[in-house]
Amino acid sequence: MAGAFYTEEDNLYPIAILGEFAASRLPLPSVFGNIITSVSPSTYEEKALFGNATFYFNDAWDLTAGLRYSENEQTADNIASGLLLGIFGAPRVTSYQFDDDATTYLATLRWRPSQDVSTFLRAATGYRPGGPQTIVGVPSGSGYAPDEVTNYEAGVKAKLAEGRLNLAASVYRIDWDDIQLNTLVNGFLIVGNGGAGEVKGVEIELSGRQGEAFSWGFNLGYNDAKLTEIDAASAAQLGARAGDRLPVSPKVSASALGDYRFTFSEGFTGSVGATLKYSGSKPSSFTSATPAATALNPNVLLPSETVLDLRFGVNYGRFDAQFRIENATDEAVQSTYVTNKIIAALPVDSNVSIGRPRTFTLAVGVRF
User: Fold this and answer.
1) How far apart are alpha carbons 218 and 275 in whole angstroms?
2) Which of 16, 97, 106, 114 has the largest count of CB atoms under 10 Å?
3) pTM for the full model?
4) How far apart are CA 245 and CA 240, in angstroms?
């Protein structure tokens, strides 16, 4: 298999911090009211070629190998003014450019001792692009590098009980290098490559069918994600240290689903189903934040969540319709918690990101 990939994206990132009188909350005079105003329009273009091939040694053993090469070009302007920057009157415009390339690979060795059992060993790499720094006060032309992951995984898939039960299980380890973390340069908060991490986990999935009418599934995952290294600049800003859990990474997740199919009229079949998903609690930031960093990088334990999805379907020949209620109990799932402060004494609110509320969807399809 071989292919090509292309994307072109435009982005606009505005920042506005305005000064107010503390008592009245009225704006300060214009020169003093503009603490910092900045807007950064940017473009991102990526081109990639990829391919993989499988060699079969015999009926039981095969090896899949693949490569992906990509290049990206990024441009950004920073249009900024304000008291903190010492820029009054006409905004100052600074332009930046950042180019990068990466080669990633995968290799999977598979052994099938029987028609019902398949095992595998896999190694693969991935990367997240770096980018230019667009903060005034940071040396022009500097940027942050890509962060990279190397994934090792071993697993098994099997059909049991004469095909009525399916089992899939895997263990994995991910080494994460040059993690893109907030850091300080000349007193300004920027994205830098501040550390390394390690993720270890286990996943188990069971699914089955009782007759032709009822199908079910269960999934359980354990994920231990930790920071293993961090440089001094990032540690000072984030209050983090080696051994901290990586933010917004729950240790335990699980799901269970069931679907029942039935005939209710000649030519018409119906189905009802539900999925229950659980995700454990997770830190919003690094767990050992120092008092100096807590105000700017607070760590809040985001609570565990349980979400119920319901679905109702009908089929007639080539035609299907399904009505879904996602997050049926309308749980306020908290995904992130961040502060907008740039100095500890700044009287601004923090933000909690809430997941999708109860959502109703009607899907209609036809097979040709």
Assistant:
1) 10
2) 106
3) 0.82
4) 10
